[in-house]
Amino acid sequence: MRTTTRTFVIIFIILAVSLIGSIYALNKHSAQIRKEQAIATYDKQQEQAKQKADNDKENNKSETVSSAAPASDASNELPVTGPELSISNLLGLGLLTTTLLSYLLSRRNLAHSFLTYTSI
To answer: What pLDDT score was predicted for residue 110?
Structure first.
């Protein structure tokens, strides 16, 4: 009886640590992707501003373009993110719930079998 309880507790701990580790890794991965997208967007805006400034110089325009001003509609776009974090959260929650329910059912069946056995 104690062995089964220990087994369920160990499995629960392993699943909990795996879930927490997966969430942490996905958060770090998505943060890195957002950082890379922000850098790429900034570089693209700088390049477009430089090209526009070069075109203005060629056309002998006296206007100068500030590099801080948004160069295109790209600054209004949100970074593309995926559903991987939500999926992993749901999967982990489902695994933990299944483990907990199977543990509780096992304990209930075990208690029921002892009651049935002692009443015979």
So the answer is: 83
pTM: 0.39
Around 9, how many Cα atoms within 13 Å sit in the side-chain half-sphere? 6
DSSP state of 83: T
Spatial CA neighbour of 3 closest among 116, 112, 106, 114: 106
Average pLDDT over residues 95-109: 88
- CA dist 91 to 8, 18, 88, Å? 19, 11, 5
For helices 84-119 and 2-58, the axis angle rounded to 10 degrees is 170
CA-based nearest residue to 23, from 98, 95, 90, 99: 90
